[in-house]
Input
Amino acid sequence: MSDLSQKEMQESGRLKIEWARNYMPVLNQIRADFEKEKPLAGRRIAMALHVEAKTAVLVETLAAGGAEVAITGCNPLSTQDDVAAALNTSENIKCYAKYDCTNEEYYEAIDKVLDIDPDITIDDGADLIFKIHKERRDLIPKIIGGCEETTTGIHRLIGMEKDGALEMAVLAVNDAKTKFLFDNRYGTGQSAWDGIMRTTNLLVAGKTVVVGGYGWCGRGVAMRADGLGAEVVVTEIDPVRALEARMDGYRVMPMEKAAEIGDLFVTTTGNRDILTENHFKKMKSGAILANAGHFNVEIDLESLKKMASSEKTVRRNIKEYVVDGKKINVLADGRLVNLAAGDGHPAEVMDMSFANQALGVKYIAENKLAHGVHKVPEEIDNYVALLKLKSMGIEIDTLTEKQRNYMDDWEEGT
Ligand SMILES: NC(=O)c1ccc[n+]([C@@H]2O[C@H](COP(=O)([O-])OP(=O)(O)OC[C@H]3O[C@@H](n4cnc5c(N)ncnc54)[C@H](O)[C@@H]3O)[C@@H](O)[C@H]2O)c1
Ligand SMILES: N[C@@H](CCSC[C@H]1O[C@@H](n2cnc3c(=O)[nH]cnc32)[C@H](O)[C@@H]1O)C(=O)O
Output
């Protein structure tokens, strides 16, 4: 990509954005409404999201609503530089993201985004909010609210709220039904496999796939592995989820045991140390490890590096570590395999996630929210679902008055 001229980069990014936009009907409807109503006129929005085509469609929707937007990445390996270049040609949008940036560059870009002096933030992992609370506290009085895209980000913000440390309102976008039921499950289910398959060019059928965590992402990853012909093993720490995995037809066991039989491991927990030294020692030669959860600590790379007698890149986005003469392959440096080694979720699911973001930002702009973590209002969730159904040409029934009364009536029996 770096061999392309700036103009070619912009054109390549623009084509990607147009392609994604064609499959994001809900966000397109919201954009049309925003263009007419300008609900974000005069607003300054700071964003840290994966900078790729679908995110660009969201950014342009917010700008169409009248906002000035500054954006950077939320993962050093998920930025697509051509999309970033295209965004920088749009009016009222400034993009600071860069693929494969150093830690220093990553946080410098976060600072640049915050220099817009935001009244609204949009995060994926709460990087902006943490920076604001720790180092840019002068910004706090002007901020009217923020949106958080992902499960782990919300867990941490709730932690901050409990400690009395959260000094702004945040909308928990991940927890909207039209987000996590589709994005985390069907999105991660498809895009993690897309990333793994395009990176390895190997067959999934006949392999033993170990999925770490059976939350919404884990369910999607397990379901699609099953569909591709793998034998699926799930590891969990939550007894109810472990039971669900078993009843959904998968084998359940501790990672200690799964490590011995897995060909391919996918972590989806949002936690750390899911695959560690003990497990690496037990793995078969040729084992492939990928992370589709949160940061690059689900796979304990530090230990793996220490244990390995050698380490080399054997294919783009695959690092082979030799441990006791066995080859252990890690995809995308343990970062999100769907974004760092793929193009992220399909446009149709990001359509709903980002519709919640756009309407969430409008909601923050129009309501004075108290400090703390707030739910996305049910009306927004249902509106997104209805628009999506409409775009798919699907109609549903509505309750009659008689049915409504019957459901609530405690006096009606058999
Ligand atoms: N790759 C992506 O594009 C993508 C998309 C959505 C969410 N996420 C991220 O993926 C992670 C999971 O999200 P989710 O919505 O599925 O969350 P979730 O809370 O529904 O699921 C996480 C599961 O992991 C389990 N778990 C925790 N520690 C474990 C351990 N040590 N061993 C085994 N299981 C363990 C939990 O019990 C839970 O069932 C989060 O970090 C989220 O931010 C990634
Ligand atoms: N910033 C952290 C957090 C995990 S990202 C997980 C989030 O990424 C979002 N996501 C997945 N695919 C895409 C995409 O293609 N574009 C933008 N966001 C995406 C998805 O909504 C999910 O909640 C990290 O990079 O490690």
About this structure: The mean pLDDT is 97. The chain has 17 helices and 15 strands.
